[in-house]
Design brief:
Blueprint lengths: L12 H4 L2 H17 L5 H8 L3 H12 L3 H9 L3 H8 L5 H11 L7
């Protein structure tokens, strides 16, 4: 299972956004996710089709680094530590919602 790949469409307004502005908005998003540990990854996946791990993986891909390094940036700590502090087992309902949500992501990614 994976999150969506970058789906650039050519003249996308995101591509014309200043990198500093985009970076500031991204950092704000990541800091909010670091603060909101009550928003479980499984619930983020079920609602939006991506989670903290996806963001970390996207950082890793864009920055040519390993996934753990990217994920630790997003978690604000090593992934194992984040899991020990905040992870709870997913319910069957959460897993079903995640699967349904992931099916809405761009195909083949």
């Amino acid at each position: 299972m994976s999150c969506s790949d970058d789906q650039t469409t050519g003249n996308d307004a995101l591509d014309s956004l200043d990198d500093a502005v985009a970076a500031a908005a991204f950092r704000r998003l990541v800091r909010l996710l670091q603060h909101r540990s009550d928003a479980a990854n499984i619930d983020l996946m079920g609602l939006a089709g991506f989670c903290r791990n996806c963001l970390g993986d996207w950082i890793a891909e864009a920055g040519d680094m390993d996934k753990e390094t990217g994920r630790a940036i997003v978690h604000g700590m090593p992934t194992a530590e984040w899991k020990a502090r905040h992870h709870t087992a997913a319910t069957p309902e959460q897993l079903a919602r995640m699967e349904e949500s992931m099916a809405k992501n761009p195909q083949g990614h």
